[in-house]
Design a protein that fits this description.
Rossmann fold; 2 domains
């Protein structure tokens, strides 16, 4: 049999590779980086939210630390009653009759924390007011509070103008409630902000990780075969096993190594997320994830129940992703990874066997590298240049992305994320996997026809055309 002895090659290659320093160090570094990234993704939103909350609460408090806030009103809108309201709320404010230049010069010289707030009207050539300006001038010791004071005084002036015009402040506040607009392609899932971020990040991360695993280990196979061939180790190896058994053993061994690292990445990421959950966003949304009825009830029901809207949005986004991790989808993802690896690994094995000198390997790898990069870019760049689709629910539906899911060169990198995000149903995913499997079988048939002749070839480097001629003549 042509494949007799592949088990020995498989066992030897696997044991030798996993014991190398480069594999151990790279695995440890990768695990540390993945753990750190997942922990940051979990903890950072909460940390930023806490800082934001502190920043939002500080303006009301910090501005009271000013020793004096002088108000220069050049518009005639601010009344003494308005200023009295500021004083009643604890701000040491007072109107001044001095000019803006004079009071600013006085504030500049003070050793304490003082400020001068100047309200002025901007007029056109006809003397009509088209805007108002608020300027806050602060002493050196008031620099930390100046921005907060400026924001507060701007809103204060706005409300003074609202009262002057006879508008009820409460009615005005209701009229200013933000109106969010969304355009959604009919028939597509409507995504909130956090779900849109996940639909943007997951395909990028998944395609990048799979590309690194599949392509890097493919290069390793090519280099291993080329080294053994050029160093005459292959000649000794072929005395006990057939040439085709060598490539099968090496491809399967490296495939198992890459699959193990892929599983390790997923496990480390999940473990890091679980450990950091009590300190991050996952800990906050865990009660919501365990309440599917609340999640299905929508934003209005969540708000009525007193649930934090941001946490609810995150829970909806994460819950939507977790729903896609069904046993069938997980199996499809693993199968896609395995077949995709075999596709590129068999091509790499042909490349490695086609050279008789290590100096020729880099040139021989160029077509292989080009094929891998084309596949990666088809999976990666439609996401980068189609970010606007995340807002209208059509992410994953543009023609280039759909093509990348079916095209065997790119599907190993793009199809898993499409399954995770629910952009492909089971039937579509199976069709894509079958197409990838068919092309992998074709590559395997090519390898089985020409590999024995290629591995024994010595002389000039075999090009793609030479290999295809050999297959045709077989």
């Amino acid at each position: 049999m042509k494949t007799k002895g592949w088990q020995k090659v498989f066992a030897f290659t696997f044991k030798q590779y996993v014991k190398t320093k480069s594999f151990i160090v790279s695995t440890i570094i990768m695990a540390i980086l993945v753990a750190a990234v997942f922990a940051l993704v979990n903890i950072l939103p909460v940390a930023l939210s806490d800082n934001s909350s502190e920043g939002n609460s500080s303006p009301v408090k910090d501005i009271f630390d000013f020793e004096k806030v002088y108000i220069v009103d050049e518009t005639g809108i601010v009344t003494d009653e308005n200023i009295g309201e500021l004083v009643a709320n604890g701000l040491k404010a007072e109107r001044t009759d001095k000019s803006a230049d004079d009071i600013v010069a006085e504030v500049a010289k003070t050793q304490g924390a003082q400020a001068a707030v100047v309200f002025s009207a901007d007029k056109d050539a006809n003397g009509e007011i088209f805007s108002y300006t608020e300027r806050t001038f602060y002493s050196p010791n008031g620099s930390k509070m100046a921005s907060s004071l400026s924001s507060t005084m701007s809103e204060f002036f706005r409300m003074c103008n609202v009262k002057r015009l006879g508008i009820d402040p409460d009615a005005y506040a209701q009229a200013q409630i933000t109106i969010n607009t969304r355009t959604v392609e009919a028939g597509q899932e409507e995504l909130n902000v956090f779900a849109g971020m996940l639909h943007y990040a997951i395909p990028i991360v998944v395609s990048l990780v799979l590309f690194m695993l599949i392509f890097v280990y493919g290069n390793t196979i090519a280099q291993s075969i080329a080294i053994e061939k050029t160093s005459r180790v292959m000649e000794l190896l072929l005395t006990s096993v057939r040439p085709l058994a060598v490539v099968i053993g090496k491809v399967l061994a490296m495939g198992l190594v890459s699959l193990a690292q892929f599983i390790l990445i997923v496990a480390v990421g999940a473990g890091s997320m679980a450990i950091s959950a009590p300190f991050g966003i996952m800990g906050q949304i865990a009660p919501l994830l365990s309440n599917p009825e609340l999640l299905a009830g929508g934003m209005a029901n969540a708000a009525a129940a007193g649930v934090d809207i941001n946490q609810f949005s995150v829970a909806q986004a994460v819950g939507g992703i977790l729903e896609k991790f069904t046993p069938v989808n997980i199996i499809l993802i693993v199968i896609t990874f395995i077949i995709g690896f075999l596709f590129f690994a068999l091509l790499a094995a042909l490349v490695g066997a086609s050279v008789s000198r290590m100096e020729d390997l880099q040139a021989a790898m160029q077509p292989y590298s080009l094929v891998g990069l084309v596949g990666f870019f088809l999976a990666y760049y439609p996401i980068i240049f189609n970010a606007e689709s995340l807002a209208d629910g059509s992410a994953g539906t543009n023609s280039v992305q759909i093509f990348s899911y079916y095209f065997p060169i790119s599907s190993p990198f793009s199809l898993p994320s499409a399954i995770i995000l629910g952009q492909f149903d089971v039937v579509q995913s199976v069709i894509a996997v079958v197409i990838l499997a068919v092309f992998t079988v074709l590559v395997a048939m090519l390898v089985s026809k020409v590999y024995e002749a290629i591995i024994l070839h010595n002389g000039s480097r075999l090009k793609v055309g030479d290999i295809l001629k050999m297959a045709k003549n077989k």
